[in-house]
Every structure is written in structure tokens, then in C-alpha cells.
Design a protein that fits this description.
By secondary structure, this protein is α+β, with helices and mostly antiparallel strands. The chain is built from 18 helices and 16 strands. It has a 4-stranded mixed beta sheet. Strands 3-4 form a two-stranded antiparallel ribbon. Helix 6 packs across helix 8 and helix 7 runs parallel beside helix 9. It is globular and about 95 Å long.
Length: 583
Amino acid sequence: MAEETQPRESPQPSERVQKYRKEIQSLIKQGGEQPQFEFKRTASLKRDNLSDRFTFIKLLQGLANAEIPDERCVVIGADPKEKQFFPVINAEEFDAANISQVLAAYLDPLPNFNVLHLTTDDDEPFVLIVLEANQPRPILITKEGHTEDGKERLQIGEVWIKKNTGLVRASRADIDRMYKTTIEQEAEDRARKRLQHLLEISPRQRATPAASQAPNFTLLVGPKNDLRSFAEELIAAGEQRRLRMLVELAREPLIDGWDKLNVRGGTTPNDLPEFVTGVATFFRDQFLPSLESVAELAILGIKHQTEGELWLSPLIDLLMDAFDASRGLNWLKSPYLLQQANGLKWWQPGFEIYIAIRTIAVYAMARKRHTYLGEILPKCVVPITIDDRLTNKNPILFWPFFGLEFRSGELNQGRAAYFWKVRVGSSWGTHFGTLPKFLEASSQLEFLLELNSYFGTNTLRDSNLEKFLSANLPDTVFRYLPDLYSQDLQVTLPIAELIYDVFSSNKPFPRHFAIDTQIFEQVLSNMQPKARLMIYAAFLIHLKKWQSEYMFQVLNRYPFFYSWQGRLEKVIQEYGKIQGRGE
């Protein structure tokens, strides 16, 4: 927030101000520039000089968004090229209140800055605007700006950033870094405040234990670094018992806590507003932090290559139990709660668990540690519905919700992008680095899920497979809408190539790539590699066709122009020749 500074006639400038005075005069004398400083001979904020006004707004935005660890400064009334200061005839325009008013009309959020009216050693006045090191980045342009001749100078959604001594539009990677820094700082601050609160209301809670001690609840709700250090010590020591103790501690907030809150129904809460607040507080302060910690443990297990059955399996089992427990939270579906804008939604606990499970699977895909997928892919659940009716099962990584729809365009850029925005980026984003890396790994997982759906729905029209599905999996639904309408299929190439190797061999279909390996074996067993590859070619054609039709017919967007390349293209061409010969 902008602040007024001491009047310029202040007889005793602070040490910080004196330092800036000396540094600015030195730079002007030497004629030098540096990223921390921006010099302007003149500037204007008046409406009758819109070009200067917009230039000034863009300059402050770019400096506030810059990757500079220290304060950054704008000096008005000086020119390092001319090596001299110039009179500022409109100094009254540059007070904190006026600058804030102008910036607030075009930028969101408002940069943090101070304004100083100073003089040189020779009594030459100049204006110094100091932008604080800690800025609410990214700062975006929220209103168009046109000059008197109609030229557009500011565009809604633009993010300008200063790099070295120039202003450039921020790249996607720049913006990802801004969000990542802000998210990590906020998450760590929330965790420390939450832990302090729990310690105040429960003084017997001990500090974070060493790996040689028994785990306690503070590990689940406290700062992430404490949990990571504890988990890494357990992994290094090959310790499983304390992990299982931590899993049991997590059952309380993830599963049993709902029963203690009387959310499932029965007696009407005595004070409904208090009930709404209590449920939301439990969800925010205990359920979500514990869920984040359980997924964090799973990701760390994959990262450090633990034994999946010993480390990952109990964590996934806990999340599956928690998903089942999130069904039937009936008071969340009452008319009163449904009307509360800030009340917990009936689907929210299950949705958060679903995102956590998917994130673990995406991380395994991102790190190319596919064997861990074998602990997740086969898991199936009864979907969550608003009326709690029992339905056929769905694989957990599909879409295990009925009646949950997003109608405000949240999923226009794909489900994975939405998951990143609402949860993944803030909770586990550091493990992926950037949003594009998460989206790429998510798309490869989607390729695998659609392949399982392709076989599970018997798109092949194979009679043996049809009999097997009817006899063994009559209550499991394999229909699926893949999240591949927002990404070029080129991002799926790594997994597509791996699956090519699977189909081009005589080996059984890998467990870690299948929801149920028997589904694939009904078709592929005793089949020669060439015939298996023709089935794979049909799937590749199916996927490309589906993506094009869905984008064009449902989203009213032009399809991507990518086509399968290399040996994938060759096997598709061979399939086309066979079909053309009627074989």
C-alpha cells in the first residue's frame, strides 16, 4: 500500500534515504544504469498527457513484477545519459495518494511503494519512488488505455516485467515463478499460524519430533519443511512403522472427524450459523492440511524411490477410505447450507481427495516412475452424488462424481489447469516446478486413462472381451471423457512411445499401466506383435479423431494440427493399408 513520506524539508533524512541520495547522485555523475533504478527526466500523470501517463503506469508495473530481491526505484528529474538533474515542474502530481489513485484504475493488485521528495547536495530537487522488495506479484493490467489518437497502450491482462534495463511482456514461465513464490510464502505462513493456534489450545502437543521419536499431529498441520525432514529421515532409515503411525493420526481429520461434527445427519444442529462456521473451520484447519500432508508423503515416497507396497500403498488406502467417508455428509446438502456462499460444499471434501490422488499419479508420470501407478490405477470407487444413491463403480482416476458440474468456464482450459489453480499449485506445486510441466505429465496420464477406457468399453467390439466384462466387471463403468481437449497431443508422445513398446512385444500388458490387466489380456494374449500394433494404431486414430471432433463440435474451437510422428505414424499408415485391402 502506498504511504506518504516525510516532507521534503525534513532536516534529518534517514540513513536509508541518505544512502539513496548518494547512490542516485553517483549514478547520474557516472552516467550509469542498473536494474534496480529507472531514471526519467520528466513524467506526467495528467489526463491531458495520456501517453506519459500510460508509460509511467507500465514502468511501475514492470518494476514491481521484476525478479529483484531488493527495493527498486524510479527517479524523476534526472538523466544518466546527460549526467545531470532537471527541474521537476510538476512535482505536486507525485504524491502517494495521487499515484495510488492513478495506478488503482489500471493495475491489480496495487504495488507497494513509498514517495520521497528529495534534493541533491546542490539543492536540485527530484522525486524518488521506492517500490518495496515484497510485491503482490503478478500485478496485472485491468483496464485498457488508449491515447488521444486511439493508439492502444495498455491491454487487459498484460503483465509487464523489467529484465535487466528493459521492459518486456512476462512469459508464462515468469508468471509461474511469481505465483510459485507467493503461494509458497502464503502456505508456509498459514501453516505456522495454524500450528501456533493448535499449540495454544492444546498445550500438551509436543514440538515436531525427530525421526527417532513417535510422530504427532503437529507434523500433519504444521510447516511443510518439518514434515519433509521427518519423512526423509524415515525413508533413509527404511522405517515403516512410524509412517503407519502417522497414517493413523491422519485418519482422525480425514475420516473420523466428520462423525464428531454430526455432519452425516440425525439431530438438527442447535445453532446453524455456528455449525456452518465449525465445519468450515475443521475443513480449513485440520482436513485440508492433513490431506496435503498425506499426499506430500506419497510424493516424497515416489521421489526417493521407496518400495511402493510398503510406503505408497498405506497412504493410497487411507485416501481411498477418506473418499468413501466423504460420501453421505448430508447436512452439507441441506437447503440452508446450500444457500451459504461461504459454506462447505457437499462435494468439496471428496473433490479435494480426488485431486490429491490424481496429483500423486501425475507426479509418478512426471518422474517416469510408472511402477507406482500400479498402486493407484486399479482403485475403483462408487461415485459421490448429491442424493447419495448407490451407482456402479468408477476407476478413481476417472471422474467419480455425479451431479457435479462447472458451468462458469472453469474447465475451459482443461481439468488439469483448474486443479493446479485451485489446489495443486499451492499445495504441491514445488514438486512439479511449473504449470506447463504439470500439464504435460497430466496429459500423459490422460492418454493412459483413455487407453484403459478404450479397452474397458470394448470399443474394439471383441467378443471374448465382451464376455469377460459382462461376467467379471458388470458393476464397473469405463466410460471416460479424457482431459485432452486443451493440450496438443504432442505432449503425450513419451507415454505413447512407451505403450508402443508394450504392443510391439509378446509380453503381458504391464500391471502399472492397467486398471485391470485381464481386460488387455483378453484381447492381446496369443496375438502376434504385428496384430497387436494394429490394435494400437486404431486407438491412436480414435484418440486424434475424438480430440478434433470434441474441440470443433463441443468447444467451437479449431482442432490442433498435430499428427502422430515417427514410428507411430508408420504403424497408422500400415493400419490404413490393411483396412484399405479389407483385411
